[in-house]
Write a structure and sequence with these properties.
With 203 residues, the chain is an alpha+beta fold. The chain is built from 3 helices and 8 strands. The chain has helices spanning 2-27, 150-170, 173-192, and strands at 55-71, 74-75, 79-80, 86-101, 106-110, 115-120, 124-141, 197-202.
Amino acid sequence: MKTIKKVLIFILCIFAVIGAASIALYIHPSMMQQPETKSTESIKVTKLGFEDIGELATQSAYCTIVKEVDESKKLFETIEIPFTQSKQIYSYDYTIKAGIDFSDVTYEIDDTHKTIHVHMPKIKILSNEVDPDSLVVYYQNESVFNRIPLEKNGKALKQMQEMAEENAKENGLFKNAEKNAEQLLNGFFKQAYPDYKIQYEKK
């Protein structure tokens, strides 16, 4: 009888040890299997946008060019023949646009000094257009003995176009175009790097 009691007590002790171990495994976090965790890293890619612009006019100039054409036939290239003088005075309006190719703009980011070094291409003429409806004739007197040929008028229009371009440059076309291009670029850079200084260098 005592032997049976000893066996029962031994069995009960085993169950008690197993139960205690189960409870400890359940309540102690270090004994439990931890769920697998994954580390993710977020990388922000900033696209400034101006790379896709291409050529863009950043300044326009409007010029009115007056042209005088005076033709007369001459004898031996020195003596003017009477009644052969033809004269025209007229004007055209021109629109000249200047800017840069934004795809040619390059830059380096200096994170240490919080500075952006921008390499700007040279300002160039993007268009030089005449308004055909702007013709104003101030004076016209053609001799029946000396008509001004169309070829002469064509050359005159070409000269007027060149004069309009030079006039626009002399009045700050390139300077204003460069300033406006920089202001446009500043807007793109400041969106991505608000605390950085921007330094411009010409290519």
